[in-house]
Amino acid sequence: MTRRALLGSAAAAGLAAGCSSSPRKPAAPAAPDPQTVLLTSLIANKEQLVSLYGRAVAALPDRAADLEPFRQRHTAHLQALRALLPGSGQGPASSSPAPPVSPSAPASGASPSEGPAAVSVGALRDAERRAASARPGQMAAASPALSQLLASIGACEAVHVVALGRVRG
Fold first, then answer.
1. Residue 105 needs a FRET pair 20 to 30 A away by CA distance; which of 18, 29, 53, 160 works?
2. pTM of full prediction above 0.85
3. DSSP designation for 143
4. Total Cβ atoms within 10 A of residue 4
């Protein structure tokens, strides 16, 4: 068989396959990247915590100076998590600030009847305790870099539980 005949038959076979009467099944969508799913969840939870602190600062103006450093640390955690999110446009060394969170914005999952007065220092401690206790399980499914960040964030949240015990609200 000549080279020309071989190429011609290969081209004809390709055309025939492209014109087949049986419909092709579309390729199954790729499963979402587990790290991206985890990061998206972590970011959403951290946004809720930042919002909770904002609501607490609004509800407890006499404790605002005590609570603001906690909120700022969570905002820094949020920025670090966003920097790891693929396609975020931020690299790990990026220093772009996280978007501001309105102190009166309700946390996701909060009932509409909950106003700023519904947030107490005890509620903040409970939220910090839940967040810190979730970190080991999240680290098990995370990449090494994300695991290191989660360990640091979890340690900070655990210290917040203790430190919030000293804040009267």
1. 160
2. no
3. -
4. 8
Nearest to 45 by CA among 109, 124, 104, 97: 109
Token pair 């203790």 in the structure block, residue: 162
Per-residue pLDDT of 99-157, as tens digits, reads 433 333 333 334 434 444 468 999 999 999 999 999 999 999 899 999 999 999 999 99
pLDDT digits (tens, 9 = 90+) for 73-91: 999 999 999 999 887 655 4
Q: Cα–chain-centroid distance for residue 154?
A: 14
Angle at 82 between CA 36 and CA 46, to 5 degrees: 95
Output the 3-class SS for 88-140.
Answer: CCCCCCCCCCCCCCCCCCCCCCCCCCCCHHHCCHHHHHHHHHHHHHHHHHHHH
CA distance 139 to 131: 12
Burial label for 79, CB within 10 Å (0-12, 13-18, 19+), is middle
Residue 78 CB partners (closer than 8 Å, separation 6+):
43, 46, 47, 50, 98
